[in-house]
Amino acid sequence: MHPAFQGLLTIAIGVSGCVGYFYFSNQFLDKVLFPARGPNAGRNINRANIIRPWLFLFPALAALGLYLAYPVVETLRLSLTDRVPGGGYTWVGLDNYIQMAREPKFWEAMRNNMFWLIIVPAMSTAFGLLVAQLTDRIRWGNIAKSLIFMPMAISFVGASVIWKLVYDTRPAEQDQIGMLNALYLFFGGSDPQTWLTIPFWNSFLLMIVLVWIQTGFAMVILSAALRGIPEETIEAAILDGANPFQIFFKIKVPQIKTTILVVWTTITITVLKVFDIVFAMTNGQWETQVLANYMYDKLFRANDWGVGSASAMVIMLLVAPILVWNVRNARKEME
Amino acid sequence: MSELNLTDVAKTYGSVDVLKNINLDIETGELIVFVGPSGCGKSTLLRMIAGLEKISGGTLEIEGQVMNDVPPAQRGIAMVFQSYALYPHMTVRENMAFALKIAKMPTDEVDAAVDRAARILQLDPFLDRLPKALSGGQRQRVAIGRAIVRDPKVYLFDEPLSNLDAALRVATRIEIARLKEAMPDSTMIYVTHDQVEAMTLASRIVVLADKGIAQVGTPLELYETPDNEFVAQFIGSPSMNLLSGVITQTGETTIVKLDSGGTAVSRVATDASDAGKQVNIGVRPEDFQPADRDPILEGIVDFTEALGEVTLLYFAAEDGADTVVAKLPGVQRNMRGQTVAVTAEPDKVHLFHQGISMRK
């Protein structure tokens, strides 16, 4: 069968399945379980209405339970067990966590993640705010914004491939196709550098990729927030004698503080889960390891399900509080 | 000494004239009100004085100094916005202190200025609150306080009361009048579309219309001796009735034979050369009184509005003519459908030729 036809068929089955579920489950509730007739018609209608929300919630709850709640529990279980060769498992308590804590690679990943955590949200938010402010008043601002937003539409792996070309290295006698090396040589560098293998700094080169992607996101949200600031408060500040910097930092930024925080934390969560960029560009070599890639290494390369799951739990514990805080902030802003 | 001079001031957006030939001298201590229909450019003119809009032509002087290209903060003006424009993230105290802190004034002087303004406006209990915890009237007072602390030469008010409800508007209007009395040397320019505010607050009113100034004068001058039909109809409510006719007798008193059949006698003097001219007579609704003979207008009352203190009579309009309104004192019962004849004292009858008053 032609794949396009398969796709259409899947959509048709899926959609009609959904419609069918809602239609028939409601029919069953109203006609069979609690029919609105007979001596108890009034009571039946009330009961049906109490149950109805759960009919609508059920598919979502089931999917979340199956794909979110169960894996969390299962990962926790795996992190506390070791596989026995030939089948089965044994409880090992916190052994996996202890083993992980003794591995330098884990601490390298933790350290790098902390750098990612500070630098990427800060730079993305700062650049996003800067771009949002600067493009607001110029005629071609919207074109600039679309260009800056475009990386958002590229997958992390795609972006990594693009930036791998930027950091590319060719032997000294050949022309450099990597922009960074081309610039480096143009400005008087002696030999082309293999940028991604220079420890410590290579992590920052990877972070630039994510900043490049996330700046667009920050810009769009912050630009909308900046436009929401009442024009009169800015005019009042002009009359009060504030210069453009004071207007920006003392009038505009404080008024969009909650939005900045939401943008910041949203990017923070993305950063904690960062995997694709490191996987595609260095695969954690040359001291660029991060937690998500470490987990992948352990789970699927070393087949060490215990330590892999333990690192997954660490990532979850780091993300959870920020996530809760973020949702709270977003709700507060909606009020 | 004159505080603020506008000489041939103009504003254009591209090729569109918004304002032109604005000439106005404002004396120290005056409260000038700009009124006009919406879109007449009154707010634009205020914003040009404030420095928020560029002046396209002419000069603006404050205390003899040309201010066209001086930054807003250095013009010695302070502005109160219609929407209050309080900084939502700052407390009342911080809002009022902002300009002084920007100007790097010592902290104790800032506190003293803020406390003084707060005392004048009775804002003391709210100094540590955020604007969102204040009522509309309180916010408006903070906005005024923010202007007071800067001790400006000229206060600019851009429709400061239009966001308040009717009762609060009256109260705040009186407060502004008191504030003006307490600061006799401060000059204020006040934009409004509400003529009650204009009449009650202004030492002089500037009526803006058709890209320029229609008339400048004290409230009663504008009411009693309007220069043109626009001002005549803009000031006063309901607006002045205009009835067309032909001058039949000139001299100390002028007699106009109206197209609707009536005869009007006006104390406005005319020359012999004016005889036969097509003119409009203007009579305010409140100047009409029932007539026994020689009425200006005799017509059927189409509709009445009884307000208690006065009764408004709307006469059935003839084809194409505007509805004539008469305002009679007290309660007038059972007037609807009746034929009523009205006239007015000769010195209450205005004469307009081609829209311009014939009064010399």
UniProtKB/TrEMBL annotation, chain A:
Residue intervals passing through the bilayer: 6-24, 54-73, 114-135, 147-166, 204-226, 260-281, 305-327
Chief place of localization: membrane
Annotated Gene3D superfamilies: MetI-like (1.10.3720.10)
Keyword Phosphoprotein (UniProt): no
Cell compartments where the protein resides: Cell membrane
Coiled-coil segments: none
Biological-process GO terms, alphabetical: transmembrane transport
PANTHER family in alphabetical order: BLL4140 PROTEIN, DIACETYLCHITOBIOSE UPTAKE SYSTEM PERMEASE PROTEIN DASB
Isomerase in keyword set: no
Species per Swiss-Prot/TrEMBL record: Ruegeria meonggei
A Pfam family this chain is assigned to: BPD_transp_1
Family: Belongs to the binding-protein-dependent transport system permease family.
Domain ABC transmembrane type-1: 110-326
Name of the protein in question: Lactose transport system permease protein LacF
InterPro entries documented for this protein: MetI-like, MetI-like_sf, UgpAE/MalFG_permease
Keywords: Cell membrane, Membrane, Transmembrane, Transmembrane helix, Transport
Membrane topology term: Multi-pass membrane protein
One GO CC term, this protein: plasma membrane
From TrEMBL, chain B:
This protein's GO CC annotations: ATP-binding cassette (ABC) transporter complex, substrate-binding subunit-containing; maltose transport complex
Entry annotated with the keyword rRNA processing: no
Alphabetical list of Pfam families matching this protein: ABC_tran (PF00005), OB_MalK (PF17912)
InterPro entries linked to this entry: AAA+_ATPase (IPR003593), ABC_transporter-like_ATP-bd (IPR003439), ABC_transporter-like_CS (IPR017871), ABC_transpr_MalK-like (IPR015855), ABC_transpr_MalK/UgpC-like (IPR047641), Mo/tungstate-bd_C_term_dom (IPR008995), NA-bd_OB-fold (IPR012340), OB_MalK-like (IPR040582)
Residue ranges of every copy of the ABC transporter domain listed in the record: 4-235
The entry's keywords: ATP-binding, Cell inner membrane, Cell membrane, Hydrolase, Membrane, Nucleotide-binding, Transport
Classification via PROSITE patterns: ABC_TRANSPORTER_1 (PS00211), ABC_TRANSPORTER_2 (PS50893)
Keyword match Membrane: yes
Enzyme Commission number(s) of this protein: 3.6.3.19
Coiled coil regions in record: none
Stored CDD domains: ABC_MalK_N
GO MF annotation, one: ATP binding
Classification via Gene3D superfamilies: 2.40.50.100, Nucleic acid-binding proteins, P-loop containing nucleotide triphosphate hydrolases
SMART domains: AAA
Similarity-based family: Belongs to the ABC transporter superfamily.
PANTHER family: MALTODEXTRIN IMPORT ATP-BINDING PROTEIN MSMX (PTHR43875), MALTOSE_MALTODEXTRIN IMPORT ATP-BINDING PROTEIN MALK (PTHR43875:SF3)
Alphabetized NCBIfam families for the sequence: PRK11650.1
Name of the molecule in the record: Maltose/maltodextrin import ATP-binding protein MalK
Organism, as annotated: Ruegeria meonggei
